[in-house]
């Protein structure tokens, strides 16, 4: 368990908030902790153990014992999201971690990365670690145009932002259509897919069954599910 304290709070876009957190224990994190995950612990008093929420390490500076974590702002019903919005410089929290990052196969011929704001931190880390001549596509779902932002990627990686407007509320449908109309490139594709449960489920099926993506070239993870808190989602994601 590590104690951290909030040092800085920056709004990246209206629905993405970056917190810089400091804690001596971060010095013990492994060198490749960037892109890995941590568990934030919340003592709500409603359960005997603290409630946990999972977040990605966007940056870490082990020498200065700081890390940056990006929080999706999604109303006030989420423990972690609400905490991120209301915390102040000096607010404290306990965390556990880190869990390993899921890097892409560096030998693939091309790449397909798909996600939403919750997996954007991990996608950004992956893009920063790709070789400069890498080619492929990235699709990121956002609820609002105002969340579209500049991200670093190799020149040959094309980034498409998919805005969920009132007509196209179905995340899975929107992503499936966008992926399907892109020309499928030559050679072995490495896939990285994470975000809302239904979107991940639908696209995973398409990539595995129709596109025959090999298991060793694919990472699929449900990060959250509409209408479920993280503990309930955790049970359901076993079925993915
Ligand atoms: C490995 C991993 C890494 C992750 N990294 C990040 C990260 O870096 N940043 C990040 O923001 N999230 C990340 N997530 C997702 C995050 O853990 C979940 O979104 C979590 O449910 C947020 O907790 P909460 O307390 O805010 O909401 P909860 O109390 O869990 O849920 C309350 C309500 O909010 C809804 N909800 C939850 N998340 C979202 C969302 N993103 N958008 C809209 N509605 C939502 C739920 O469906 C539920 O109805 C990660 C998940 C995993 C598994």
Describe the 3D structure:
The chain has 240 residues and is of the alpha/beta class. It folds into 2 domains: 2-99, Translation factors (Elongation Factor Tu (Ef-tu), domain 3, Beta Barrel); 110-239, Nucleotide-binding domain of ferredoxin-NADP reductase (FNR) module (Rossmann fold), CATH 3.40.50. Helices cover 21% and strands 36% of the residues. The chain has 5 helices and 12 strands. A 7-stranded antiparallel sheet has the order 4-3-7-1-2-6-5. A 5-stranded parallel sheet has the order 10-9-8-11-12. α2 (120-129) links the parallel β8 and β9 (135-142). α3 (171-181) runs parallel beside α4 (197-210). The longest helix is centred in the last third of the chain and has 14 residues, at 197-210. The radius of gyration is 18 Å and the shape is globular. The two termini are 30 Å apart. 32% of the residues are buried. The model has no long low-confidence stretch (mean pLDDT 94). The structure holds flavin-adenine dinucleotide. Flavin-adenine dinucleotide binds next to β4, β6, α1 and β12.
């Amino acid at each position: 368990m590590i104690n951290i304290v909030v040092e800085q709070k920056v709004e990246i876009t209206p629905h993405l908030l970056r917190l810089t957190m400091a804690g001596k224990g971060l010095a013990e994190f492994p060198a490749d902790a960037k892109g890995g995950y941590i568990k934030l612990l919340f003592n709500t008093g409603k359960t005997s153990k603290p409630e946990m929420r999972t977040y990605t390490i966007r940056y870490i500076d082990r020498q200065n014992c700081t890390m940056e974590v990006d929080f999706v702002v999604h109303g006030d019903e989420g423990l972690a999201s609400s905490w991120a919005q209301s915390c102040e410089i000096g607010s404290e929290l306990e965390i556990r971690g880190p869990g390993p990052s899921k890097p892409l196969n560096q030998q693939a011929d091309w790449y397909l990365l798909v996600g939403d704001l919750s997996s954007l931190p991990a996608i950004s880390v992956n893009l920063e670690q790709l070789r400069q001549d890498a080619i492929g596509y990235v699709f990121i779902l956002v609820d609002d145009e105002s969340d579209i932002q500049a991200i670093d990627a190799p020149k040959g990686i094309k980034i498409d932002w998919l805005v969920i407007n009132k007509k196209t509320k179905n995340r899975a449908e929107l992503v499936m259509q966008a992926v399907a109309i892109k020309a499928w490139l030559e050679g072995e594709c490495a896939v990285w897919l994470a975000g809302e449960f239904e979107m991940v489920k639908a696209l995973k099926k398409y990539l595995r069954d129709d596109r025959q993506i090999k298991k060793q070239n694919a990472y699929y993870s449900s990060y959250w599910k509409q209408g479920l808190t993280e503990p309930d989602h955790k049970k359901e994601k076993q079925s993915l």
